[in-house]
């Protein structure tokens, strides 16, 4: 800006000699006042501000520009510039409209052989820049909160004085970020943020940021805090904010951090309203849950014969052991030990029947699923046992070959068992038109490097011209009376467990459905 400053010429020069053409090209008021505060130069931009051109202003005293009160308020700055100091400050300047406008002002002294000769003044209109800023700031669909990190920096200094590893301490203790939020003031917000908070600027400005941050959002704010300390450029995460009525709003929370944290304390936090998207995702999840439930119920109809057989077996054993116990007790010399043994067998068979019924009921009840550790081998063998009778009724044989050590998996046992049962029953139904004696199903399991592969292999007609990926699409079916939901739901369950499912041609003909699951 020094190339715009005008040297103070001798007092007897005409006013036009004080100017340079560049001064009128800069959108600012540029002027020169002598040591007695008399205007000796003013550029043409003064016409727009004061309604008077340079010819009318040169020769006037500064108090005639500002008025007595404003001139008096400039005294401290005038004394400093007279001492040879360059001064920058913000103040209101009278405008031709009768209003006062905010301006950024700079005094630059001119020192000569005789000492202080006068000073240059540069005045920039802040109201215009603020108008442009707020036009963009308030017109965007993104909510912006301007926060002051001065108290947070003091908190960080306090923690650093008594904590060895600050980042580890903050990462493991959410009470720290809650404390930081409760001392961070909101100093500005745009119209969109005001709408999102459900609060006017007057109600929001001056409040602490923690007022709008529920406990559910502390993890996201903690990540922002840690990225700020790590001097990252920015960070964003999905979370929720509290509105004025304490309802929650789903948002994408983003923060752009200052390049010089030790100098800058104001940070702008961005909020993007994603409540509509989240609502649609939740609605979709509910529909998917309904479809999974519908598929479970439809599968139960196909499993009724097998379940009935499985339950009848322990019931028949209960009746037989009950009669045996009566006979042992009705002897002339009752054999109590044999009767007790028969009764113990009754209890065991009753428990077995109860487990079968409970397993079936869990598959019929609509739920989000329960994750727990379970023995994979036991789950597979139980699925084989449950379906064996139905498979036999469909004219097929069922074998299992679990050629790997028993492993423990974490997941929803019932859902994964449902997948396996569905694949076994589908395989048997796919071979209904095959000649007797040629229908066989093998269930295998083998250990992978980071998981396990379960395969259901049949000797049926194979995939033919069917696109293997299309089999897993909802409502696609090759059965005359099928719903087309079983494989689609199975794919959703497997992928929810971090696995994959594929349909492949069998080595000796037929089809192989291969499920790969990770083992934690």
Describe the structure.
With 520 residues, the protein is an alpha+beta fold. It is built from 18 helices and 17 strands. Helix 14 (275-330) runs antiparallel to helix 15 and helix 16 packs parallel to helix 17. The radius of gyration is 41 Å and the shape is elongated.
| First and last CA, distance | 65 Å
Q: Write out the strand line-up for the largest beta sheet, numbering strands in chain order.
A: 2-1-5-4-3
Mean pLDDT: 80
Q: Return the structural class.
A: alpha+beta
What helical percentage do the residues reach?
40-55%
Number of strands: 17
Defining traits:
alpha+beta, 520 residues, 5-stranded antiparallel sheet, single chain, disordered N terminus
């Amino acid at each position: 800006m020094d190339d715009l400053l005008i040297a103070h010429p001798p007092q007897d020069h005409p006013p036009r000699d004080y100017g340079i053409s560049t001064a009128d090209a800069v959108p600012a008021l540029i002027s020169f006042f002598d040591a007695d505060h008399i205007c000796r130069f003013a550029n043409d931009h003064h016409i727009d501000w004061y309604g008077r051109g340079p010819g009318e202003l040169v020769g006037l005293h500064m108090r005639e520009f500002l008025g007595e009160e404003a001139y008096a308020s400039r005294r401290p700055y005038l004394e400093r510039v007279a001492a040879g100091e360059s001064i920058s400050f913000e103040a209101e300047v009278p405008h031709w409209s009768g209003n006062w406008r905010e301006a950024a002002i700079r005094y630059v002294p001119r020192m000569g052989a005789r000492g202080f000769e006068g000073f240059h003044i540069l005045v920039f209109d802040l109201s215009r820049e603020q108008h442009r800023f707020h036009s963009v700031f308030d017109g965007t669909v993104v909510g912006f909160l301007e926060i002051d990190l001065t108290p947070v920096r003091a908190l960080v200094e306090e923690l650093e004085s008594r904590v060895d590893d600050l980042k580890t301490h903050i990462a493991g203790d959410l009470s720290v970020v809650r404390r930081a939020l409760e001392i961070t003031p909101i100093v500005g917000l745009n119209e969109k943020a005001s709408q999102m908070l459900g609060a006017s600027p007057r109600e929001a400005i001056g409040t602490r940021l923690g007022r709008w941050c529920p406990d559910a959002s502390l993890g996201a704010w903690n990540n922002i805090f840690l990225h700020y300390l790590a001097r990252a450029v920015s960070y964003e995460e999905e979370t929720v904010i509290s509105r004025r009525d304490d309802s929650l709003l789903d948002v994408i929370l983003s923060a752009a951090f200052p390049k010089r944290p030790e100098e800058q304390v104001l940070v702008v936090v961005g909020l993007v309203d994603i409540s509509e998207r989240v609502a649609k995702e939740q609605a979709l999840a509910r529909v998917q849950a309904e479809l999974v439930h519908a598929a479970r119920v439809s599968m139960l109809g196909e499993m009724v014969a097998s379940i009935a057989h499985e339950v009848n077996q322990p019931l028949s054993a209960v009746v037989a052991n009950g009669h045996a116990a009566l006979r042992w007790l009705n002897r002339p010399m009752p054999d109590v030990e044999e009767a007790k043994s028969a009764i113990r067998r009754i209890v065991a068979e009753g428990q077995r029947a109860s487990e079968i019924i409970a397993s079936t009921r869990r598959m019929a009840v609509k739920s989000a699923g329960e994750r727990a550790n379970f023995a994979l081998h036991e789950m597979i063998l139980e699925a084989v046992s449950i379906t064996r009778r139905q498979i036999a009724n469909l004219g097929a044989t069922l074998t299992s070959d679990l050629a790997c050590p028993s492993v423990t998996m974490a997941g929803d046992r019932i859902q994964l068992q449902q997948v396996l049962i569905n694949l076994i029953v589908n395989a048997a139904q796919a071979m209904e038109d095959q000649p007797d004696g040629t229908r066989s199903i093998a269930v295998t399991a083998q250990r992978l490097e980071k998981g396990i592969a379960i395969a259901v292999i049949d000797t049926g007609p194979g995939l033919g011209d069917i696109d293997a990926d299309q089999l897993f699409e909802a409502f696609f079916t090759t059965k005359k009376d099928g719903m087309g939901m079983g494989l689609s739901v199975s794919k959703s369950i497997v992928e929810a467990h971090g696995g994959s499912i594929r349909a492949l041609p069998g080595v000796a003909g037929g089809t192989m459905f291969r499920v790969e699951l990770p083992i934690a």
